[in-house]
Design goal:
Distance between the termini: 17 Å
Shape: globular
Largest sheet: 5 strands, antiparallel
Strand content: over 45%
Oligomer: single chain
Order of helices and strands: HEEEEEEEEEHE
C-alpha cells in the first residue's frame, strides 16, 4: 500500500476534534487523542522511534509494509521514519509517548513529526 498516495486521496475528508491533551514530565511528552470510530488519523512519520499506548478501543495501524490490528490495552512501538496511519475500528483513546525536552504544545509537533 502506498500511504502517500492514500493520504493525498483522503486529505481533508477526515477532519474532526480529537480532544487532544498534552502531558509533559521531565523529558517525556505524551499526546492524548480521542479518536472516534471510523476516523483515520493521517499519515506521518516521526524523527525518533517512540511508544504508543492504546488505552481504549481497537485500531488498525497501517504502513507501506503492513496492516496490524490492536485491541486495548496495547503498547505499540512506532519506528522512526516509518509513515503510518491509525484507523479507529472502535472509539479509541491513543497516547503517543516521546522523549523530548520540548514543553511548548505549539512547538512539540515540529520537533517530533517529519513532514513530507
Amino acid at each position: 500500500m502506498n500511504l502517500s498516495y492514500l493520504h493525498n486521496q483522503l486529505d481533508g475528508q477526515f477532519k474532526c476534534d480529537l480532544g487532544i491533551a498534552h502531558h509533559f514530565s521531565d523529558g517525556l511528552y505524551a499526546k492524548e487523542m480521542h479518536i472516534p470510530k471510523g476516523f483515520t488519523a493521517g499519515t506521518h512519520a516521526h524523527s525518533f522511534s517512540h511508544l504508543s499506548m492504546l488505552a481504549k478501543g481497537r485500531v488498525k495501524v497501517i504502513t507501506d509494509d503492513y496492516n496490524c490490528e490492536y485491541t486495548a490495552p496495547a503498547c505499540i512501538e512506532i519506528k522512526a521514519g516509518i509513515h503510518h496511519m491509525i484507523e479507529a475500528l472502535e472509539d479509541t483513546v491513543w497516547f503517543c509517548i516521546h522523549a523530548t525536552n520540548e514543553t511548548d504544545p505549539e512547538k512539540v509537533d515540529k520537533v517530533l513529526i517529519q513532514r513530507k
